[in-house]
Every structure is written in C-alpha cells, then in structure tokens.
C-alpha cells in the first residue's frame, strides 16, 4: 500500500462526477473540480495535468474513492474548432491517448447533458477530441432517450508483425503490434499455454503484463504523428479466431499497471481490426463481434475504408457498443486526511 502524504492541495477540493460503465468497464466522468488546465493543444493539456495535477488523478482514480481498475475521463476545453467536447483519459498508472469504452459512454453523456446544441434523430453526431486526435461518435437518439453508440476512431495501422521477444517463463514469444489510438501487443492465448475460457484472470493478467514489459524493453515504438503517442499501452491476449466469422471472437486487454479491461476494449478492437485487415483475414465493411473474456460483453467492429498514416497503410474503423449510467458523485478532501489523497494496494 502506498499513500500520498505529501501531495500539495492548495485549494478546497470538490470534484463532481458522473458514473457510467461500458460493458462492465467503469467510466468516471469528471465534470468539475479540477484546477485550471493550461496548454495550447490537447497533448499539451495532457502533459500539464501529468506534471502539475497528478495528485488530482490519484485522488479520483485510486482508493478510497476509486480502485485499482478505475478509469476516469476528464473533460477539458477543446483546442480544435470541430470538437464538441474534449477529454483526457486517466487510469491507475497515468494517462492514455485513446479509450473506446470511454468514447461510447461519453457520446451518450454529451447528448444527455445538453452539450450538443442541436441533437438530431435517429442519430446525433458528437465530435470528441482525444489526445490521439478527433474521434466521431454517432449516438442513437429518439428525441427523449439516448442509446447505443458507434464511433469512427483515428486511423488504425499495423506497426510490426511477427516480432520476437523474450518473456519469462515462456521463452521466445512472437507478437504483433498494432495501433488503434494507442499501441497494443497482440498474442494468442494458446501460444502461452493459456485459455481465455478456463485460465484464471490473474494468470492471463501476469502473462500479458510480462509481455508488455518485454516489448517495452526490446522494441522501440515510434508514432508517425507525434512523439507523445509513441508508447506501448498494453497487451491483448486473443482466442486466435481472427478470420472473418459470424461467431464472436474473444480477448482480454491488460493495460497500464496490470489494469484489466472489463469490456472488449474499444481502442483494442480498433487495433485488432487493423491487424486482421492487414493480414487479409477480413475485408472492408465485414462486421465482427468482439467479446470480453471477463464479462462476455460484446462490441462490434468493422474496417470502413483504407487510409494512410505516414508511411503506414491503415484503415478507418467503426466500433459499436453501449454505455450505462450508474450514479453521480461529489468527492471532497479534509485537510488532515493524508490517506484520502489516494492509495493503491498491490
């Protein structure tokens, strides 16, 4: 257990949130309570929060208000005119550049909270500025209630295939690395002598984390767009059912500091579709179902058109799912409550 005893809070704390989940993966939308965030671009804002306001991330993500696998979305001012809203993503280790499950819930929230001036029926378009770029969500809306959300992410592409890394106790393991707003390593469960249906989550978690550590140690990842995007976010273990089929394909995503995604992982689905398309296993507009191995929840996804990202050939991907409301919170902090600054038990 590590508590933050020296974190400087120079102002009264009152953080207000809306609580949601997408396919079981939590999303805590922070609507107010953070100090002013500086930065000309959204990546500048992300860097500012990381360097100057990380104590607020720990306050809202970690215990006693959150937990090891909590995920937060911090609403910030957009820095591009096309955006309806802008968001920074926060988890147990720091700050992501893309999060599909968050985009799905944020789409509903933006319409329901009146952040879209002229919502349309049967779908309302919501442009969400993420650190990786502009993501467009389409929210089902009947004039009274919002529903499922589909989104078109930033261009996805395959970075490397058949990369060999050394992972103890498995030895040499072959992985693929693909980008869906953030970079993931992909490996089939059977190559690790594991099974997504029968293996313990803790065993899958450890294997994925060990693979992430090996890739970070042995493979240099560079983004063709911005150096702030050039890092491995996590590892996705799949059932190896990558050829086009009407049968759902299963995976588990382990990201950040061994954080387990309860959903099929929206950015991971985006990256996996790019990988499947790159290998000739699916075609454009062939919809696949992706199932979380933990909650059995389903996202659907498809490649909608070919694109280029720098020197890489890629695809624009559409992912669909639904987020649900679970409550609202107002978090405070008393002056002498040092444990209340946030802690994690590992």
Structure description:
The protein is of the alpha+beta class and 346 residues long. Helices cover 18% and strands 40% of the residues. The chain contains five helices and 20 strands. It has helices at 42-52, 54-61, 100-112, 201-218, 266-278; strands spanning 2-3, 14-22, 25-32, 72-76, 85-90, 95-96, 123-130, 133-141, 146-152, 156-167, 171-179, 183-188, 232-238, 249-255, 259-260, 288-292, 298-309, 312-321, 323-332, 343-344. The strands form two sheets. It has an eight-stranded mixed barrel. A two-stranded antiparallel ribbon has the order 1-20. A hairpin with an 8-residue loop joins strand 4 and strand 5 (85-90). The longest helix is centred in the middle third of the chain and has 18 residues, at 201-218. The mean pLDDT is 96.
Q: Name the overall outline.
A: globular
Beta-strand share of residues: 35-45%
Q: How many strands, which pairing sense, and closed or not: the largest β-sheet?
A: 8 strands, mixed, barrel
Q: What is the number of E strands?
A: 20
Mean pLDDT over the full residue set:
96
Q: Total number of helical segments?
A: 5
Helix content: 10-25%
What is the string of helix and strand elements? EEEHHEEEHEEEEEEHEEEHEEEEE
Strand order of the largest sheet: 10-11-12-13-14-16-17-18
What Rg, in angstroms, do the CA atoms define?
A: 19 Å
Structural class: alpha+beta
């Amino acid at each position: 257990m590590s508590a933050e005893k020296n974190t400087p809070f120079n102002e009264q704390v009152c953080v207000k949130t809306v609580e949601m989940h997408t396919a079981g993966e939590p999303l805590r939308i922070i609507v107010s309570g953070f100090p002013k965030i500086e930065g000309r671009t959204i990546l500048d804002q992300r860097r500012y929060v990381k360097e100057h306001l990380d104590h607020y991330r720990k306050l809202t993500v970690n215990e006693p208000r959150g937990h090891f696998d909590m995920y937060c979305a911090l609403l910030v001012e957009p820095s591009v005119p096309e955006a309806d809203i802008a968001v920074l993503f926060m988890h147990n280790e720091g700050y992501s550049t893309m999060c599909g499950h968050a985009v799905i819930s944020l789409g509903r929230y933006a319409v329901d909270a009146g952040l879209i001036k002229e919502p349309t029926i049967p779908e309302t378009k919501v442009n969400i500025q993420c650190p990786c770029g502009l993501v467009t969500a389409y929210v089902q809306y009947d004039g009274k209630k919002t529903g499922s959300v589909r989104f078109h992410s930033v261009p996805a592409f395959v970075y490397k295939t058949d990369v060999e890394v050394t992972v103890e106790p498995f030895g040499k393991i072959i992985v693929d690395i693909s980008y869906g707003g953030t970079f993931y390593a992909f490996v089939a469960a059977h190559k690790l002598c594991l099974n997504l249906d029968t293996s313990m989550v803790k065993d899958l978690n450890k294997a994925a984390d060990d693979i992430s550590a090996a890739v970070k140690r042995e493979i240099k990842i560079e983004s063709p767009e911005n150096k702030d995007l050039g890092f491995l976010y996590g590892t996705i273990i799949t059932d190896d059912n990558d050829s086009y089929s009407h049968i759902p394909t299963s995976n588990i995503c382990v990201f950040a500091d061994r954080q387990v995604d309860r959903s099929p992982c929206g950015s991971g689905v985006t990256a996996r579709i790019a990988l499947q398309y790159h290998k000739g296993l699916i075609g454009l507009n062939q919809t696949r179902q992706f199932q979380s191995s933990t909650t059995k929840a389903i996202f659907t996804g498809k490649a909608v058109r070919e694109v280029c990202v720098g020197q890489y050939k890629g695809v624009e991907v559409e992912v669909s799912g639904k987020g649900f409301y679970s409550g609202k919170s107002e978090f405070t902090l008393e002056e002498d409550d040092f444990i209340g600054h946030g802690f994690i038990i590992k």
